[in-house]
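Hi everyone, sorry if this is the wrong subforum. Our group has a chain we'd like a structural model of before ordering constructs, and none of us has done structure prediction before. Sequence below.
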Amino acid sequence: MTTPMIDIKVTYTSIDRVRITRSFGTLAGARKFAAKYVGHHPEIGCGYAISSDGIGKITVKGCTLANLFRTADLDEDDRLDAYHLGCEAAELAAAKAEAEELDRLCRPYRTKGCVCCDQQLSLIGCECPAENPAMPF
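Answer:
Right subforum, don't worry. Here is the predicted structure as C-alpha coordinates:
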Protein backbone atom coordinates (compact mmCIF):
# COMPACT_ATOMS: atom_id res chain seq x y z
CA MET A 1 0.00 0.00 0.00
CA THR A 2 1.40 3.39 -0.95
CA THR A 3 1.26 6.43 1.25
CA PRO A 4 -0.86 9.25 -0.09
CA MET A 5 1.03 12.18 -1.55
CA ILE A 6 0.56 15.38 0.40
CA ASP A 7 1.30 18.82 -0.93
CA ILE A 8 2.90 21.20 1.54
CA LYS A 9 3.91 24.62 0.27
CA VAL A 10 6.33 26.55 2.49
CA THR A 11 7.22 30.18 1.79
CA TYR A 12 10.14 32.03 3.35
CA THR A 13 10.25 35.84 3.19
CA SER A 14 12.78 38.15 4.79
CA ILE A 15 12.96 41.82 5.62
CA ASP A 16 15.35 42.38 2.70
CA ARG A 17 12.65 41.09 0.29
CA VAL A 18 14.02 37.61 -0.32
CA ARG A 19 11.17 35.23 -1.15
CA ILE A 20 11.63 31.48 -1.54
CA THR A 21 8.72 29.09 -2.04
CA ARG A 22 9.12 25.32 -2.10
CA SER A 23 6.63 22.46 -2.36
CA PHE A 24 7.14 19.24 -0.44
CA GLY A 25 5.53 15.82 -0.55
CA THR A 26 6.57 14.98 3.00
CA LEU A 27 6.41 16.77 6.30
CA ALA A 28 10.07 15.92 6.98
CA GLY A 29 11.25 17.87 3.93
CA ALA A 30 9.09 20.86 4.81
CA ARG A 31 10.40 20.80 8.40
CA LYS A 32 14.00 20.75 7.22
CA PHE A 33 13.42 23.71 4.87
CA ALA A 34 11.59 25.76 7.54
CA ALA A 35 14.20 25.04 10.21
CA LYS A 36 16.98 26.08 7.83
CA TYR A 37 15.52 29.55 7.49
CA VAL A 38 13.91 30.35 10.86
CA GLY A 39 15.38 27.75 13.21
CA HIS A 40 13.76 24.90 15.11
CA HIS A 41 12.07 27.15 17.71
CA PRO A 42 10.70 30.26 15.99
CA GLU A 43 8.13 32.62 17.42
CA ILE A 44 4.74 31.37 16.20
CA GLY A 45 2.23 34.03 15.25
CA CYS A 46 -1.20 33.83 13.70
CA GLY A 47 -0.45 32.03 10.44
CA TYR A 48 3.30 32.63 10.36
CA ALA A 49 6.53 31.81 12.18
CA ILE A 50 9.25 34.41 12.77
CA SER A 51 12.94 33.67 13.31
CA SER A 52 14.39 34.65 16.69
CA ASP A 53 16.30 37.56 15.14
CA GLY A 54 13.16 38.86 13.42
CA ILE A 55 14.70 38.68 9.93
CA GLY A 56 12.79 35.78 8.37
CA LYS A 57 9.17 34.65 8.23
CA ILE A 58 7.71 31.27 7.24
CA THR A 59 4.16 30.71 6.04
CA VAL A 60 2.78 27.31 5.13
CA LYS A 61 -0.13 25.77 3.20
CA GLY A 62 -1.02 22.11 3.43
CA CYS A 63 -0.27 21.65 7.14
CA THR A 64 -0.29 23.70 10.30
CA LEU A 65 2.64 25.59 11.77
CA ALA A 66 2.26 23.48 14.91
CA ASN A 67 2.84 20.32 12.87
CA LEU A 68 5.67 21.91 10.90
CA PHE A 69 7.58 22.89 14.04
CA ARG A 70 6.40 19.91 16.15
CA THR A 71 4.56 22.02 18.68
CA ALA A 72 1.13 20.42 18.30
CA ASP A 73 1.58 18.15 21.33
CA LEU A 74 3.02 20.85 23.62
CA ASP A 75 1.22 23.77 25.17
CA GLU A 76 2.82 27.22 25.36
CA ASP A 77 4.24 26.76 28.87
CA ASP A 78 5.90 23.45 27.94
CA ARG A 79 7.48 24.99 24.84
CA LEU A 80 8.80 27.96 26.82
CA ASP A 81 10.11 25.73 29.62
CA ALA A 82 11.94 23.48 27.15
CA TYR A 83 13.37 26.49 25.31
CA HIS A 84 14.57 28.19 28.49
CA LEU A 85 16.06 24.98 29.90
CA GLY A 86 18.05 24.56 26.68
CA CYS A 87 19.25 28.17 26.82
CA GLU A 88 20.15 27.90 30.50
CA ALA A 89 22.13 24.70 29.91
CA ALA A 90 24.05 26.32 27.05
CA GLU A 91 24.74 29.46 29.09
CA LEU A 92 25.87 27.37 32.07
CA ALA A 93 28.25 25.31 29.93
CA ALA A 94 29.71 28.48 28.36
CA ALA A 95 30.12 30.14 31.76
CA LYS A 96 31.79 27.02 33.19
CA ALA A 97 34.24 26.85 30.27
CA GLU A 98 35.04 30.56 30.64
CA ALA A 99 35.57 30.20 34.40
CA GLU A 100 37.92 27.25 33.87
CA GLU A 101 39.91 29.21 31.29
CA LEU A 102 40.14 32.26 33.57
CA ASP A 103 41.18 30.06 36.47
CA ARG A 104 43.89 28.50 34.33
CA LEU A 105 45.13 31.90 33.17
CA CYS A 106 45.05 33.51 36.62
CA ARG A 107 46.60 30.61 38.51
CA PRO A 108 50.18 31.52 39.41
CA TYR A 109 52.90 29.53 37.72
CA ARG A 110 54.54 27.33 40.34
CA THR A 111 57.61 25.20 39.70
CA LYS A 112 58.29 21.98 41.57
CA GLY A 113 59.52 22.75 45.07
CA CYS A 114 58.37 26.40 45.03
CA VAL A 115 57.19 27.67 48.42
CA CYS A 116 56.22 31.22 47.37
CA CYS A 117 52.68 32.34 48.21
CA ASP A 118 50.13 32.86 45.43
CA GLN A 119 50.14 36.64 45.94
CA GLN A 120 53.91 36.85 45.48
CA LEU A 121 53.76 34.64 42.39
CA SER A 122 51.01 36.82 40.91
CA LEU A 123 52.74 40.14 41.66
CA ILE A 124 56.47 39.59 41.22
CA GLY A 125 57.01 35.94 40.38
CA CYS A 126 58.98 33.24 42.09
CA GLU A 127 62.03 34.24 44.13
CA CYS A 128 62.50 31.11 46.21
CA PRO A 129 65.56 28.84 46.15
CA ALA A 130 63.62 26.25 44.09
CA GLU A 131 63.49 28.70 41.14
CA ASN A 132 66.75 30.52 41.79
CA PRO A 133 69.28 28.18 43.44
CA ALA A 134 71.87 30.97 43.68
CA MET A 135 69.77 32.99 46.16
CA PRO A 136 71.19 32.72 49.71
CA PHE A 137 67.97 32.33 51.73
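For your construct planning: Strands lie at 8-14, 19-24, 43-44, 49-50, 56-61. The chain is about 40% helix and 15% strand.
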